[in-house]
Amino acid sequence: MTEYTDPACPWAWGSEPVFRLLRQGLSPRLEWRRVFGILFDEDDDPAPDPDAEARWYEGFVKGVAAHTRAPYAARLQWLTRTSWPASLAAKAAQEQGESVAEHVLRRLRETTFILGRPADSLQTMAGVLKGIQGLDVERLLEGRAMKAARVAVREDWAETRRPIREVRDLDGPGPHPGRVKEVGEGCRYALPTLLFE
Questions:
Q1: Is 34 a member of any domain?
Q2: pLDDT tens digit string along 106-157?
Q3: How far, in Å, CA of 177 to CA of 172, rounded?
Q4: Contact 3, 34 (CB under 8 A)
Q5: If DSSP states are collapsed to H, E and C, what string results for 145-182?
Q6: How far is CA 37 from CA 66, 182, 186, in A?
Q7: N or C: fewer beta carbons within 10 Å in the chain?
Q8: Is 181 contained in some domain?
Q9: d(CA 128, CA 192)
Q10: Cα 165 off chain centre by
C-alpha cells in the first residue's frame, strides 16, 4: 500500500485514525509506504494578504473537519508557508523506526490542526519534536539526515505528480472523491490517496 500524503493536509489529518486502524488490521501482511506529496511547495507565490489567506484556510479546515470529525485549532495563526520542512522531518524520522516516524508525523500535524501554529521551518523543528519517546532529534536534524531526506522527498514529490490513469477521471461520492488535482501544468494525486497493489 502506498499512502500519498502531506503533514499540512486537513484531509490526511482527518483520515489518520482510519488509516491507523487499517494498518493495524492488515499488519503484518501489509507493507505500507508513505510518500510525501508536498501540498505547499517552496516556490509557491506568497499570499498577498497572509491573514486573509489564513482565515480562508481556517474555514476550509473547519469544513473538512465537519466531514471527518477531526479536531481543529480554534484559530490558525498563519497558513503553512511550505510543506517541505515538516515533510523532511517526517521522512528523516523513518530512519529511526516506524513508531518514532508515526509520532513525529502526528506531532507535526498537531502543530497545525491542534495548536494553529504550523511547523513550517527547520529552525523550529527541534522545539516542536522535543519529548517524542525514542526520537533522537539531533540525529534527525543533522545535515546528512536532512540531505538524504531532501533527496527522498524530492522523489516523493515527483512520484505524486505521476498518478495512475485510473484516478485521472475518477468521479466518486463526497467532497473528496479522489480525483487527481491540477497543479501548475500537470497534476498530482489528491492528498491523501491510498494505492493498493
A1: yes
A2: 999 999 999 999 999 999 999 999 999 999 999 999 989 999 999 999 999 9
A3: 5
A4: yes
A5: HHHHHHHHHHHHHHHHCCCCHHHCCCCCCCCCCCCCEE
A6: 24, 13, 14
A7: C
A8: no
A9: 23
A10: 23
For residues 172-194, average pLDDT:
89
The total domain count for the chain is: 1
Give the 3-state secondary structure percentages of the chain, helix then strand then coil, rounded to 5. Answer: 50, 10, 40
**Is 194 a member of any domain?**
no
Length of the chain as a residue count: 197
Sheet (strand 193-195) strand order? 33-36, 2-5, 193-195
What confidence category does residue 77 fall into, taking pLDDT thresholds of 50, 70 and 90? Answer: very high
Q: Which grid cell sits at 86?
A: 515538516
Q: What is the C-alpha to C-alpha distance for residues 155 and 150, in angstroms, rounded to an integer?
A: 9
pLDDT of residue 184: 84
Q: Is residue 168 part of a domain?
A: no
Strand-pair partners of 89: none
Amino acid at 4: Y
d(CA 2, CA 23): 11
CATH number at residue 81: 3.40.30.10
CA–CA dist 108, 145 (Å, integer): 18
- Report the predicted TM-score, pTM, of the whole model to 2 decimal places: 0.94
Structural domain for 126, as ranges: 2-156
Q: Work out the pLDDT band at 169, boundaries 50, 70, 90.
A: confident
CA dist 173 and 177 (Å) reads 6
